[in-house]
Amino acid sequence: MSIKHQVQPTTPPTSADALRRLQLGLEAQITAAGASGVTTFNNRSGAVSLTTNDVTLALTFTPQPAGTYASGTGSASGTNTGDETKATIDTKIGATGGTTNFYRQDGTFAAPPSGSTNKAYCKVTGSGFQSLVSGSAATLTWDTETYDVQNMHDNATNSDRIVVPFTGWYDVKAHVKISEHTGGFRFLQIQKNNLDVTPEYVAWPGGGTHASVQLEERLQATAGDFFTVRAFQNSSAALDARKLNSFFSVAYVGGL
């Protein structure tokens, strides 16, 4: 950066006069730009220092001898700490930024605090029926995703499970509608990594209508764990879990 300051007084300027005019001119430009700053000058060394809210400049100024009406010239060098070029930021992002870190004001990258920006939620349902043999619990499968943030479910591979991406607390919900029958009872249960982690939520059919069973639990999990839903009925006949009218969801709510 270079600065040329034209000095054309009606009387020969002194070194201090020229520096003072340069100082006032810089201050006026800073104010006009909406910034704030301060300048100081030294009429012996011909130096002007300028500090604003986002840039620091060290200037040198060579005043002309008294009685000379020529222009004075000066130069400036400094470091802009508030605005970096896009190319510079792109280079830093490519080198150390990655896709999860954020760019700090001091020009470095940092990972967000654990759980501060993590989002993970998945809700699945089904497109048909799944037969439930009387007296035997079955793990339900799901082939339709209502939403899936963080790729927690696969409609084809291991479609019975929702896999959690972060260690922490999760809200786990399920609602399953089972075909009508007057006998026995129905229940749902959540498993984590194929082990029971909730009690059995039971519903009794009434008057031969469909039985709907639902549950909701807040559960701990480690990244990579998976949740599944088991359904049971003991009507003495095979019944269907009507997955088109059912759902299973897992939502991350925070770190441990």
Features:
256 residues; 43% strand; 2 helices; mainly beta; rod-shaped; single chain; disordered N terminus; Jelly Rolls; 2 domains; six-stranded antiparallel beta sheet
Structure write-up:
The protein is mainly beta and about 260 residues long. The chain folds into two domains: about 1-80, no CATH class; about 120-255, Sandwich (Jelly Rolls), CATH 2.60.120. It has helices at about 15-30, 85-95; strands at about 1-5, 35-40, 45-50, 55-60, 70-80, 100-105, 110, 120-125, 130, 140, 145-150, 160-165, 170-180, 185-190, 195, 200-205, 210-220, 225-235, 240, 245-255. Strands 10, 12, 14, 15, 16 and 18 form a six-stranded antiparallel sheet that branches. Strands 1-5-4-3-2 form a five-stranded antiparallel sheet, covered by helices on one side. The longest helix has 18 residues, at about 15-30. It starts with a strand and ends with a strand. The model is unreliable at about 1-10 and about 70-75 (pLDDT under 50).
